[in-house]
Amino acid sequence: MLSARELTKVYNGTPVVYNVSFDLQPGTVTAFLGPNGAGKSTTLRMLTGLTRPTHGQSWFAGRHYTAWPNPAHVAGVLLDASATHPGRTGRSHLRNTAILAGVPTSRVDEVLNEVGLADAGGKKIGKYSLGMRQRLGLAQALLTRPPVLILDEPINGLDPEGIRSIRTLLRNHAAAGGTVLLSSHVLSEVDQTADRVLMIGNGQIVADGPLRELVSSQQSVARGPDSARLAQVLRDAGIGVQPTPDGAVFANATPERVSDVAFKAGVQIHNITEYQQSLEEIFFRLAGGQQRR
Ligand SMILES: Nc1ncnc2c1ncn2[C@@H]1O[C@H](COP(=O)(O)OP(=O)(O)OP(=O)(O)O)[C@@H](O)[C@H]1O
């Protein structure tokens, strides 16, 4: 299990990460979501010992990352995909990393294959596209077959096929009992990948929960033969309503409440569904309104 307690980082008197706590369980993919500058990278750097917290602690299976004799075997980390020598080939970069981590070099071709770089292993990293560098960073993180993956924006720069293959890879890692924490500032990137979302805004966790719970709303979209009458009876019951462009009624109440009110007023409803908030809407509701400390 990966745990963080009250992780806080203060730069020049300003907290850029404040009181961030979570526990991540094996078998799960967690997305760490927030806009640019929200504090995602700083948190990941604190977890992996690259930045010293001003306050708070974190543990991988009971010990801080850097307290493990060979941390690369505890967690595979991708923090900055550009931190590689451009004159080396992808394969030679991974071979060096494998030797340092005590991994047989036969693993290098395996992992190049896993991330879809089998044909590019002999090419100089300087000639790699951003997406290829992301894949190489991921290959490096996977080299030791670590139980935990900590990935900063791993999907950034990938084409749709790349996104699909990384999603599958991360889901498979979790299905095999691994723990994945990936950051992103693009909500749609993680909506088919993550079981759980930790949203961070201005350095603080603003939401934490399964994706399904975060997207559920207390709002409905109802359709009936007489939308104007339906809207009127809902309004009379104190429910905020709005017509939708396609002739339905958007109501600020659960489908159960809307159905009850309409039934009592004798107004027909043909179809009613809970309104599904997009991740963008949730994010801006929760994080967008936060004031900087
Ligand atoms: N070494 C540093 N010194 C001073 N301020 C820093 C330092 N590192 C990060 N910051 C500031 O901390 C805040 C959080 O940055 P961080 O990189 O953690 O955000 P992020 O959510 O990862 O954003 P991005 O998606 O842009 O990488 C930003 O305002 C950033 O300018």
SSE diagram, text form:
Elements: E1 2-11, E2 14-24, E3 28-33, H1 40-47, E4 55-60, E5 75-78, H2 90-101, H3 106-114, H4 130-142, E6 148-152, H5 160-175, E7 179-184, H6 187-190, E8 196-201, E9 204-210, H7 211-215, E10 220-223, H8 227-236, E11 241-243, E12 249-251, H9 255-264, E13 271-274, H10 279-288
Parallel strand pairs: 3-7, 3-8, 5-6, 6-7
Antiparallel strand pairs: 1-2, 1-4, 8-9, 10-12, 10-13, 11-12
Helix pairs in contact: 2-3, 3-4
The chain binds adenosine-5'-triphosphate.
Residues 11, 16, 34, 36-42, 185 line the site of adenosine-5'-triphosphate (ATP).
Major beta-sheet overview: 6 strands, mixed
CATH structural class of the largest domain? Alpha Beta
Instruction: Determine the fraction of residues in helical runs and give it as a percent range.
Output: 25-40%
Q: What's the total number of strands?
A: 13
Under the CATH scheme, which architecture of the largest domain would be assigned?
3-Layer(aba) Sandwich
Query: What is the number of helices?
Result: 10
Count of spatially separate domains? 2
Give the spatial strand order of the biggest sheet.
Answer: 5-6-7-3-8-9
Which structural category fits the helices and strands?
alpha/beta
Query: How far is the N terminus from the C terminus?
Result: 31 Å
Shape: elongated
- Average pLDDT, all residues: 90
Q: Summary?
A:
The protein is 33% helix and 26% strand. By secondary structure, it is of the alpha/beta class.
Explain this structure to me?
This protein is an alpha/beta fold and 293 residues long. It has 2 domains: 210 residues, P-loop containing nucleotide triphosphate hydrolases (Rossmann fold), CATH 3.40.50.300; 56 residues, Alpha-Beta Plaits (2-Layer Sandwich). The strands form 3 sheets. Strands 5-6-7-3-8-9 form a 6-stranded mixed beta sheet, sandwiched between helices. A 4-stranded antiparallel beta sheet has the order 11-12-10-13, covered by helices on one side. The longest helix has 16 residues. The two termini are 31 Å apart. A hairpin with a 2-residue loop joins strand 8 and strand 9. The protein is elongated. It contains 10 helices and 13 strands. Adenosine-5'-triphosphate binds next to helix 1. The site of adenosine-5'-triphosphate has 11 residues, from helix 1.
